[in-house]
């Protein structure tokens, strides 16, 4: 039971680490694709950030756009990609990269959500194991207590078989020595 719970916990941690890595890579690559698109578009509009061509894609500077939450960024990029080919020449040259990394980021977000279920199952298995071990310990203690009663042993005798964790009281903070 302990080995199974540990294996499930390791699997959950591994799944989380893998999805975190996938999401981080996809986010970084999507950011790079958006920056490349933004840089080229800015040159195409002659650095006029008020131009309709620019504001159609970026309502904020590109550096702020790429710091948005990944889900929001993916949603915005998907909106760009919904434009028909040929409507924006600069977008068409960056379409493949934006599509690839928006899809990868979207899939990584979905997998990240899926790991919540795996982590929840591992946590539940850990709780069930703790409850089972507690029941076993209590049963053993009761059996030892019955044996102590049969043999007229001291009442504390069963407790010697169990490790007790004693917590020390926090030591008071030392008082500063008077100056002088």
State the gist of this model:
This protein has 180 residues and is mostly helical.
Task: Give an overview of the whole structure.
The chain has helices spanning 2-44, 52-55, 62-65, 70-81, 89-150. It contains five helices and no strands. It starts with a helix and ends in a 30-residue tail after the last helix. The chain is elongated, with a radius of gyration of 31 Å. It folds into two domains: 2-116, no CATH class; 126-161. Helix 4 runs antiparallel to helix 5. It is mainly α and 180 residues long.
Structurally, how many domains make up the residues? 2
Q: In angstroms, what is the radius of gyration?
A: 31 Å
Number of helices: 5
Number of strands: 0
The percent range for helix content is 55-70%
Write down the overall geometry. Answer: elongated
Quickly give the structural class. Answer: mainly alpha
Distance between the termini: 64 Å
Q: What fraction strand? A: under 5%
* Whole-number mean pLDDT: 88
Q: What summary fits the major beta sheet?
A: none
Poorly predicted sequence stretches spanning 5 or more consecutive residues: none
Give, in order, the helices and strands. Answer: HHHHH
């Amino acid at each position: 039971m302990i080995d199974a719970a540990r294996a499930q916990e390791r699997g959950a941690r591994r799944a989380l680490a893998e999805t975190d890595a996938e999401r981080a890579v996809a986010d970084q690559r999507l950011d790079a694709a958006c920056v490349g698109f933004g840089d080229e578009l800015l040159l195409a509009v002659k650095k006029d950030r008020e131009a309709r061509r620019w504001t159609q894609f970026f309502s904020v500077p590109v550096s702020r756009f790429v710091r948005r939450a990944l889900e929001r960024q993916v949603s915005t990029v998907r909106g760009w990609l919904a434009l028909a080919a040929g409507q924006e020449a600069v977008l068409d040259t960056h379409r493949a990269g934006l599509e690839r990394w928006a899809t990868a980021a979207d899939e990584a977000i979905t997998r990240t959500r899926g790991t919540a279920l795996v982590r929840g199952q591992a946590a539940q298995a850990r709780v069930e194991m703790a409850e089972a071990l507690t029941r076993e310990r209590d049963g053993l203690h009761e059996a030892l207590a019955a044996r102590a009663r049969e043999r007229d042993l001291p009442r504390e005798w069963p407790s010697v078989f169990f490790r007790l964790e004693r917590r020390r009281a926090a030591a008071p903070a030392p008082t500063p020595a008077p100056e002088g």
